[in-house]
Amino acid sequence: MSFTNLLKIAIKAILSNKGRSFLSMLGIIIGVGAVIVMMAIGQGSKQSIREEIQKNGTNMLTIRPGADMRGGVRLDPSAMQTLKQVDYETILSEAKFVNKVSPEVSTSGQAVFGSNNTTSTCYGESPDYLGIRLWTVEEGTFFTEEDVKKSAKVCIIGQTVVKELFPNGQDPIGKTIRFKSIPLRIVGVFKGKGYNNWGMDQDNVIVAPYTTVMKRLAAQTHFNSILCSAVTEELSDAAIEDLTEILRRTHKLKDGEEDNFTIRSQQEWMDTMSSTMDTITIILVVAAAFSLLVAGIGIMNIMLVSVTERTKEIGLRMSVGARGIDISNQFLIESILISLTGGVLGVLFGALLTWGCNTIVGYPAVIPVWSVIVSFAVCVAIGVGFGYFPAQKAARLDPIEAIRYE
After folding, report:
1. Quick check: pTM over 0.85?
2. pLDDT digits (tens, 9 = 90+) for 320-354
3. Residue 320 lies in a domain
4. 82-101 as b/e, with b when 16 or more CB fall inside 10 Å?
5. Residues 231 and 195 in one domain
6. From 50, 104, 221, 277, which residue has the greatest number of CB atoms within 10 Å?
């Protein structure tokens, strides 16, 4: 019997039991839709995180204090005071693969202007900060090297600080706010960046010369971190090696001694976050895939019922010359059609859910093309795998007994 005839018979059998066929497909529809949307959410999250990190510069390097052993006790990195002015100056003069450097000191407190106040974080930076973090000053200017040398009481503020301290639409440029009781004159306002993927308000910031923050606000002689910008993204690894050699020398570390600092590139952050999201996506997809297993069992159950109901029909086909392989192929095609149709509807269902995540919920979701291909391949495998046993049962029926079946 030709494939075309077998296909027509299978389609007719499915259409003659529309309700039962749809219920058989429902598990596939839900399973495929769930797998598609889970992959879309995972892919969208990875893409969103990469874009967020790239906003801070793909060639940015961050130097932080590292954990150290004191008296047999490992100290927390935040308690270390290993990054000093000499490190910054040596990096500026000797580093071959970085073109911008900014020491960073931060302190949190209350900013006040008139009767308005808000809690914010003040970061002490150098003029290179703008180029490293890719910030844009929307109004006014950034402070200069001269301001750093004089520990000038000037600052640039983010849009959130503007809204909180100047709610009536006043021009903040030239106004003096107080942060931890220290007056700071506003010389510029940053362009808004909004919230990042971790829920942090990037506009709730105040940036001042690092010398001002160290001497007047934080009262400390060490840096919390040092930010650098590699000449190019491709030279980030070479820059890390160069910086490591410089810092080990300035920290007077002997051969074999552990570094008391850490250097991280943006690429490392992206790789780490991508790996984390991949793991979460795999867990979600595996959980969703169990519904496909249940759907396959449902298809096998329905096909077994169909074989029982059509026993007499099978006997008649065999008596007029149909071979066992023809009967087997007929039920296999029927099973694959149910599974593939469910897969198509499942992809559409997954696309609808993905659209809802993007437009209604506002969560980033992107459907990768390979997930659709994999879904169809799985549907074919389910159709063949779970349709094989019912098809073989139908093919092995005795024609005489089948015709007599009531």
Report:
1. no
2. 666 777 777 777 887 888 888 888 888 888 888 88
3. yes
4. bbbeebbebbeeebebbebb
5. yes
6. 104
